[in-house]
Write a structure and sequence with these properties.
The protein has 191 residues and is mainly alpha-helical. The chain has one domain: Hypothetical Protein Ta1238, Chain: A (Up-down Bundle), CATH 1.20.1200.10. Helices cover 57% and strands 4% of the residues. It has five helices and two strands. A two-stranded antiparallel sheet has the order 1-2. GO terms for molecular function: ATP binding; corrinoid adenosyltransferase activity. It is an enzyme of class 2 (transferase). Belongs to the Cob(I)alamin adenosyltransferase family. Its EC number is 2.5.1.17.
């Protein structure tokens, strides 16, 4: 098998159901998800030991799901069955809720960082937000699997929660943004 095909030498690429320019919004959206996937892989290399087996397994699951998201975004005509489902979103929500309980209480904005692993997960989070913006732009012009947008929105929250838990398990405190007001409160709590 050859790795190169030469079919993209003039700035076009194939999608599921047609060919487009390589700077098409659809290509930008799934290309940005590919970046997220690479940063997730990088973060996984920094998660050593038993303390992170659960997170490592989840991140590997997410890598497969990011491929599913990219595949769904590559469908031009929307006639093929989509792979990304509401159950994938629900899984992320369940894990976010569990990690929020595990991490120390949060009142203020925090700076991305702490440990090397948490910093890498924060990079994945910010690139996920960029991917979300690309998907929103795409959805304004062409049909997409709307659940992909929900999944990516939840994924960035998941990365935030996981980065905080990684720091907590390592005993590395999150660094609060020094000029932050109190922005996170428990439900029902008044200022």
């Amino acid at each position: 098998m050859k790795l190169y095909t030469r079919t993209g030498d003039k700035g076009k690429t194939s999608l599921i159901g047609g060919r487009v320019d390589k700077d098409h919004l659809r290509v930008e959206a799934y290309g940005t998800l590919d970046e997220v996937n690479s940063f997730v892989g990088q973060a996984m290399t920094l998660l050593d030991g038993e303390a992170f087996q659960d997170i490592y397994a989840e991140l590997q699951k997410i890598q497969h799901e990011l491929f599913d998201c990219g595949g769904d975004l590559a469908i031009v005509n929307g006639k093929l069955p989509y792979k990304v489902t509401a159950e994938m979103v629900t899984f992320l929500e369940e894990r976010i809720d569990a990690y929020i309980k595990e991490a120390p209480p949060l009142e203020k904005f925090i700076l991305p960082g702490g440990s090397k692993a948490a910093a890498a997960i924060h990079v994945a989070r910010t690139v996920t937000r960029r991917a979300e913006r690309c998907i929103v732009s795409l959805s304004k012009n062409e049909p997409i699997n709307d659940i992909v947008l929900q999944y990516i929105n939840r994924l960035s929250d998941y990365f935030f929660a996981v980065a905080r838990v990684v720091n907590a398990r390592l005993g590395v405190p999150d660094v609060e943004y020094e000029r932050s007001a109190i922005v996170f409160r428990e439900k029902g709590e008044k200022s």
